[in-house]
Amino acid sequence: MEIMRLVVTGPVGAGKSTFIRSVSEIAVVDTDRQATDETSLIKQKTTVAFDFGRLAFGPEMALHLYGTPGQSRFDFMWDILIQKAHAYILLVAAHRPREFVDARRIRAFMRQRSQVPMIIGLTHMDSPNAWDIENTAIALGYLNADKCPPIITVNPNEAASVAQAIITLVQHSMQNCLV
Amino acid sequence: MAVTGYLSEFSLAEIFSFLEQGNKTGLLTICVLSEDQSKKRENHYVWFNQGRIVAASNRLDQHGLANMIGQRGWLGEHTALRVAQTCAATMPIGLILKTQGLLTVEQLKLLFYAQVMRQVCALFSLKDGWFQFDGKVPLPFAEMTGLNAPATEVTLSALRVLKDWSALASKLPEPSSAIKGIIEGKPQQKLNQSEWHLWEFANGTLALHTIAKQLQLPLEKAQQIAFRLVTAGLVEEVPLVTVSSVASRPEATGPEIAVPETVPAEATAVSHSFLHNLVGFLKGKV
Lengths: 179, 286
What we know:
- The complex is a heterodimer of chains A (about 180) and B (about 290).
- Chain A is α/β, with parallel strands linked by helices and about 180 residues long.
- Chain A has six helices and seven strands; from the N terminus they run E-H-E-H-E-E-H-E-H-E-H-E-H.
- In chain A, strands 2-3-4-1-5-6-7 form a seven-stranded mixed sheet, with helices on both faces.
- In chain A, strand 3 and strand 4 form a beta hairpin.
- Chain B has a six-stranded antiparallel sheet with strand order 1-5-2-3-4-6.
- Chain B is globular and about 75 Å long.
- Chain B folds into two domains: about 160 residues, no CATH class; about 70 residues, Arc Repressor Mutant, subunit A, CATH 1.10.10.
């Protein structure tokens, strides 16, 4: 079985879970583990949580989608996910500038650990308070167009929009010699 | 689309950083929000040219600078206004007055300090406010001394003297985060001693709480200095996996916190045919 692993990351409320649900052929697995009595002390600090979705498109081919935990808490699970990812998409709610700083933190965390291809997906672009792509790119620290990853608009609620976002990510990966 | 929001969401330091890094030209309006409805609405205006602050005022009639000149007795306010009105709106009034020998360079510097540095720095103590940046507003030549300052230089000055950081608490780099330099070479900005000390640690490996210990600084102080370096565009915050999280990795703590089966075992390359098939499959869903 050949598998491509994509990580869907972003601040709380950017649409990560919805994004995965929109294209996954299986019910999205929320792997949040509740602490047991025996491990509650450790578990309270180390809750393992991420969304998992799958898209099989051949007898031996599948796309796996992993959504990072929503909290701005970078535990070992983040580390594992990014180390094993082939590419990732950073979702950013364009109408909530307060979360741009979280998006920058996540990007810095990811970039420190992996050089896999990435794109940025701006959500909630239909909101009247949404920042446009150019200004959001600057706010996220992309000042040089040559060094800026592809930035697209995506509606996590629409399967077609999510599919288009993944196409962009895969094509970007192909250009970056993923294979 | 508008660049608008609340200072509680996107701080003035972040706005200035955004406007400087984006080389923006236009007018930033800040409307102070007061719980007292009976109070008159208080607006502040800051004009930018290519990311640099060129003027500031709490009025839009372009009489602010002339008024300041008049208050100092350097020139009658009406005279200054007449000069501003008779001159074509292509040159800052400060430069015109200097060219005509009516004001000296030193006087212009003092005016710029009072108009921009003092007024704008005071805005950093606002708890909240609504802001909007309009990139279509022409430059206000009658409010301009002809001098300017990079927005982040003003930010650095303001944050160095800021007493109450409560409004910026959520913006400060986390104690468990490192900072990493994002510029080539050394900073061009004039940094103070504590900023230089923190800069020396901007290698993305040491957590701020460790840096604070090494520099014998209160953690909060180290976070504030780091925030200044971030907004000056010199470093970025790099979250580190916390020690407690690393210690509780599955390998370290035993099977009771086993990694779910869905976590991949290892990353292997995917083939071209796989990617082409995937794109073809997804195109059918668009």
